[in-house]
Automatic annotation (TrEMBL):
Name of the protein this chain belongs to: YprB ribonuclease H-like domain-containing protein
Pfam short name (any one): RNase_H_2
Database matches in NCBIfam families: TM0106 family RecB-like putative nuclease
Domain named YprB ribonuclease H-like: residues: 328-517
Keywords: Plasmid
Keyword tRNA-binding: no
């Protein structure tokens, strides 16, 4: 989204939208009008923290696109692939020049146009690939790192098909997505183009109406759809003490409270719900109790390192298994963005970490994998280790936090065709024990999140250093792989050691959480 001076000197600047603007606007109109406010100097631009994961994903997307370009050059020959460079100047003349160049390349019949540039009717965008078909039409191809087609991607295909049609270029009936799995999916454009028109026209109307206003966008204005998830929404929610900040709040309950005149977390915490006409059911009281905890109100059972907690009636902790000397505290490190260079298959569980009691206090044991073959062996070795330890301690449990470990073990067993029955036996007999479910059924805390990082102040006062979260570990694993590929062995070892230390901390955290939960009812 940007402005260009009008061709009519007396007219207002022309607002130019991209395919990405239209897709984003169909999801969150508030973010779109806020972006317009920034362009109009009504509000300062939102300062967003650096997102290493987004940068990594973008880099992998560029790599995927470059790979596809290389394959097309091999298939058609370099002379049959025309690459349109970015505008030399990002003004009207520069954009129009690249548009004309793209249309000429299409009319010249190149087999592939890469990064075709369009600029017409208030739209600017660059299509990944336009490929000539046997029937003389051009088909729009877009590269996506995703592993399945999403509605937003189909709108982008429709955007470029519309530009081709407007320029008088015959358009193939289907648009295509070249996915991160190397699969190409086809999608009928007659189904997507009307949706694109509706999204484009709606966004233009919203933006033009807001442009005529004198005041900046205000949070909660019912004229605009808000996704409640994007950075703009999150920033405004925090500033407004929005009801969505209450743990387990959803959009429909938020709407009911707002209809009753309750617009903030603090108002909800202080409200007399029957007096404002809220239909009583247990969940309303639970939500209000949570709001009170988050606001520092109401009864609590304790506060440790700034986090308050309240033990629920009949807590789930009562059903926890008794401690065993053989208990295992388990945590995976995986990278869903890793791709096997031979098969193109996505994802790897590269570190199985577990902590166990020992004569010296505890042992930290790891099984590592940097290829699918090694991943298969790591699964076998892990399961063999568990079987051996169960033989010595039949009453042991494998404690983990949230469902990822169970899901990952099942996925690995299916992927490699080994240990399927053994994994299911661990799950079905309750040897795998999820502490998240126990936490959820035992306590409320003064934070809206139940991530283990938010719980740690209750039982692990020392803060984390180095690699501090799962996203950071994935980013660091990518850095590790780059170091390996470039022959920087010492740097690679240092990076992987920091990931292992993070995993070790998570395993210890799971152990300490188990012990803290067991002490709740004593």
């Amino acid at each position: 989204m940007f402005f260009l001076p009008s061709t009519d000197r007396t007219g207002q600047d022309e607002l130019i939208l991209s395919a990405s603007d239209i897709v984003a606007g169909s999801t969150c109109e508030f973010a779109a009008v806020r972006k317009l406010d920034v362009l109009l100097n009504r509000v300062p631009a939102l300062v967003v923290e650096a997102d290493a994961m987004a940068d990594l994903t973008a880099a992998l997307g560029d790599k995927h696109e470059a790979k596809v370009l290389g394959l097309l050059r091999e298939e058609f020959g370099p002379s049959r692939v025309y690459e349109v460079g970015p505008p030399r100047t990002f003004d009207r003349s520069g954009l129009e020049a690249r548009h004309r160049e793209t249309i000429q390349a299409l009319r010249d019949g190149f087999d592939v146009i890469f990064q075709g540039s369009f600029f017409a009717d208030g739209f600017h965008g660059r299509a990944d690939f336009l490929i000539l078909q046997e029937d003389g039409t051009y088909a729009v191809f877009d590269t996506k790192l995703a592993r399945s087609a999403k509605a937003e991607a189909l709108l982008q295909l429709a955007a470029y098909a519309d530009q081709l049609r407007s320029a008088g270029v015959p358009v193939h009936r289907d648009g295509h997505l070249i996915l991160g799995t190397n699969e190409t999916t086809s999608h009928p454009l007659p189904e997507s183009v009307p949706l694109f028109y509706a999204a484009r026209d709606r966004l233009r109307a919203v933006l033009e109406a807001h442009r005529l206003a004198s005041l900046p966008s205000a949070w909660g204005d019912p004229r605009w759809l808000a996704c409640l998830k994007c950075p703009d929404c999150k920033a405004e929610m925090e500033a407004a003490d929005d009801l969505m900040l209450v743990r387990r709040m959803n959009k429909s309950r938020r709407a009911k409270l707002m209809e009753a005149g309750i617009r903030t977390k603090a108002m909800f915490a202080a409200a007399d719900l029957p007096d404002v006409g809220i239909k009583m059911d247990p969940l309303w009281f639970e939500l209000q109790d949570q709001a009170r905890l988050q606001c520092g109100l109401g009864d609590i059972d304790g506060t440790i390192n700034g986090v308050s907690y309240k033990v629920l009636p009949n807590p789930a902790v009562i059903a926890m298994p008794k401690p065993s000397a053989g208990d295992i505290f388990f945590d995976f490190e995986g990278d869903p963005l890793w791709q096997d260079p031979a098969t193109g298959e996505w994802g790897i569980e590269y570190l199985f970490g577990l902590v166990e009691h020992s004569a010296d206090g505890h042992d930290f044991i790891t099984f590592t994998a940097h290829s699918l073959e090694e991943e298969r062996q790591a699964l076998i070795d892990f399961m063999d280790h568990v079987a051996e330890r169960r033989a010595a301690y039949p009453d042991l449990h494998i404690f983990h936090y949230a469902q990822y470990e169970v899901s990952a073990l099942r996925k690995l067993a299916r992927r490699h065709g080994v240990m399927v029955d053994e994994v299911e036996e661990l799950v079905e007999t309750g040897v795998m024990f999820d502490l998240y479910e126990t936490v959820k059924g035992s306590v409320r805390i003064s934070d809206r999140s139940f991530s283990i990082k938010k719980l740690e102040p209750l039982y692990m006062p020392a803060g984390r250093i180095g690699v501090t979260n799962a996203v950071d570990s994935m980013v660091q694993y990518s850095v590790y792989r780059d170091a390996v590929d470039s022959g920087q062995e010492q740097a690679a070892l240092t990076i992987f050691r920091s990931i292992s230390e993070y995993n070790h901390y998570d395993c210890i955290s799971t152990w300490k959480l188990r012990d803290w939960l067991l002490n709740l009812t004593r």
